C-alpha cells in the first residue's frame, strides 16, 4: 500500500524503513505537518501516517478522503486530535499504537521529577560556569513523600510502580481503578484528596472533554503549598495561565512539562534562531523552577521501533481484513 508519512523526521524514516525491510509498502516521506495546505501531497496514497501535531479535523479528513485515502494510521497512542465522528461518516479507518513503551514515558516523567527536585538543570549550568555553590539547589528525599498519579493506565501504572520503588506513598485517581495497581500498594482516592495530600502530582490521563483543564486554578488551590506538578500526558489537561499564576504566587513549587496546549506551533522543530511568538510559553521558560522538554517522553529506540512495527501491522491488517489491528472508533470518545 502507498502510505504518505507526514511530519517525518530522520528518526521516523529510519525506524519505518527498518520495519518495512521486506518492502511490502511504498512509504512516501513528507517533512511538513499535515494540514489543509499540505494534504494534497497525499494524492495517490491509500493511507496516511500522522503524528501528534498533525491536523486531523473535519476539512482535512474530508480532503484526504476525496483524494482516495481510506486509512489513517497514527504513530502515537493519543487520538484526541482526530475528528472521529467525521472519520466514521466517511468510512475512513483509523488505527493507532496504543502501547509502544509505557516505560519510555514513565521513565521520562521520573527524569523530570528528579531534575526539578534536585535542581539538576541549574546545577549543570552552574558547574560549567565554575560555580560550585549549593545555595538554591536544596531538594527533598522522595523516600517517604506522597506522589499522586492521575490516570493509572499503562503509563500511570508504570510510573506508580517506579515511585513505589523509591519508597514513596502513592495515591491515584482514575474513574476506572485497576486492581493490579491497587495490589502494588497504590491507594485510589478522589481527585481533591489526591491534590491536597501529594508532594508530587503527575498527570497520565488522556485528553478528553472531561480532562481538558482538569488542573485549573481551583485544582491548583487544592494542592499542597510548594508541591510539584508534572505533565507528560497532553498539554490541555492543564490550564497554563492558571499554572503560571500559581508559580508566580509560589503556591506551585515546581513544574515539569513534556507537553503544552499550543505545542503544535513549537515542538519537533529547531526554532533556536527565531523569537518565540507564544508569550504564555515564553513566560513559562523564565521560571527557574520550570523544566520543559519538547514532547520527547516517548523518544527511546525501543519505543520508535515498536511504533514503526505496530504502524505497519495496522496497515497490513487493513489490507488483509479492512480493519487495523488497533482501530480507533467513535465509541472511544465516550
Ligand atoms: P491509557 O489509556 O493506558 O491510560 C489512561 C488512563 O487514564 C486510563 O486508566 C483511564 O481510565 C484514565 N482516565 C480517563 N479519564 C480520566 C480522568 N478524568 N481522570 C483520571 N484518569 C482518567 O493511556 P496511556 O498509554 O497510559 O497514556 C496516558 C497519557 O499519556 C495519554 O494522554 C497519552 O496521550 C499520553 N502520552 C504521552 C506521550 C509523550 O511522549 N509525552 C507518549 C505517549 C502517551
Task: Walk me through this protein's architecture.
The structure is a single chain. The protein is α/β, with parallel strands linked by helices. The chain folds into two domains: 2-100 and 301-333, Rossmann fold, CATH 3.40.50; 102-292, NAD(P)-binding Rossmann-like Domain (Rossmann fold, 3-Layer(aba) Sandwich). It is built from twelve helices and twelve strands. A seven-stranded parallel β-sheet has the order 8-7-6-9-10-11-12, sandwiched between helices. Helix 11 (279-284) links the parallel strand 11 (252-257) and strand 12. Helix 1 (10-19) crosses helix 12 (301-321) and helix 4 packs across helix 6 (154-165). The two termini are 32 Å apart. The mean pLDDT is 96. The protein binds nicotinamide-adenine-dinucleotide.
| The top level CATH class name of the largest domain | Alpha Beta
Mean pLDDT: 96
By CATH, the topology of the largest domain is: Rossmann fold
Q: What is the straight-line distance between the termini? A: 32 Å
Instruction: Please give the order of strands in the largest beta sheet.
Output: 8-7-6-9-10-11-12
Oligomer: single chain
Low-confidence stretches: none
Helical content, roughly? 25-40%
* Total of helices: 12
Annotation, overall tally of beta strands: 12
CATH architecture of the largest domain: 3-Layer(aba) Sandwich
Superfamily at the CATH H level of the largest domain? NAD(P)-binding Rossmann-like Domain
Query: Shape, please?
Result: globular
Number of domains: 2
Whole-angstrom Rg: 21 Å
Percent range for β-strand residues: 5-15%
Amino acid at each position: 500500500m502507498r502510505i504518505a508519512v507526514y511530519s517525518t523526521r530522520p528518526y521516523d524514516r529510519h525506524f519505518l524503513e527498518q520495519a518495512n525491510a521486506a518492502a511490502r509498502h511504498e512509504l512516501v516521506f513528507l517533512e511538513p505537518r499535515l494540514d489543509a495546505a499540505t494534504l494534497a501531497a497525499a494524492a495517490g496514497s491509500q493511507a496516511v501516517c500522522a503524528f501528534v501535531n498533525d491536523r486531523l479535523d473535519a476539512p482535512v479528513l474530508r480532503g484526504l478522503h476525496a483524494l482516495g485515502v481510506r486509512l489513517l494510521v497514527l504513530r502515537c497512542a493519543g487520538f484526541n486530535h482526530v475528528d472521529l465522528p467525521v472519520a466514521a461518516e466517511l468510512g475512513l479507518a483509523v488505527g493507532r499504537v496504543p502501547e509502544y513503551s509505557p516505560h519510555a514515558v514513565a521513565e521520562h516523567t521520573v527524569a523530570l521529577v528528579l531534575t526539578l527536585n534536585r535542581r539538576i538543570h541549574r546545577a549543570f549550568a552552574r558547574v560549567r560556569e565554575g560555580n560550585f555553590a549549593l545555595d538554591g539547589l536544596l531538594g527533598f528525599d522522595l523516600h517517604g513523600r506522597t506522589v499522586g498519579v492521575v490516570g493509572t493506565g499503562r503509563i500511570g501504572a508504570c510510573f506508580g510502580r517506579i515511585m513505589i520503588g523509591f519508597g514513596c506513598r502513592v495515591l491515584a485517581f482514575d474513574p476506572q481503578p485497576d486492581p493490579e495497581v491497587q495490589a502494588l500498594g497504590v491507594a485510589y482516592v478522589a481527585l481533591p484528596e489526591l491534590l491536597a495530600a501529594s508532594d508530587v502530582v503527575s498527570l497520565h490521563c488522556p485528553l478528553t472533554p472531561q480532562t481538558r483543564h482538569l488542573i485549573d486554578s481551583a485544582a491548583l488551590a487544592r494542592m499542597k503549598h510548594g508541591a510539584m506538578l508534572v505533565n507528560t500526558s497532553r498539554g490541555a489537561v492543564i490550564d497554563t495561565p492558571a499554572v503560571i499564576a500559581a508559580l508566580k504566587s509560589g503556591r506551585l513549587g515546581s513544574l515539569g512539562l513534556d507537553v503544552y496546549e499550543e505545542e503544535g506551533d513549537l515542538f519537533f522543530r529547531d526554532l533556536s534562531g527565531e523569537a518565540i511568538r507564544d508569550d504564555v510559553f515564553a513566560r513559562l521558560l523564565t521560571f527557574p523552577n520550570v523544566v520543559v522538554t519538547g514532547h520527547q517522553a516517548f523518544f527511546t529506540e525501543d519505543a520508535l521501533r515498536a511504533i514503526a512495527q505496530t504502524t505497519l501491522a495496522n496497515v497490513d491488517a487493513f489490507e488483509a481484513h479492512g480493519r487495523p489491528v488497533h482501530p480507533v472508533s467513535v465509541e472511544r470518545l465516550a
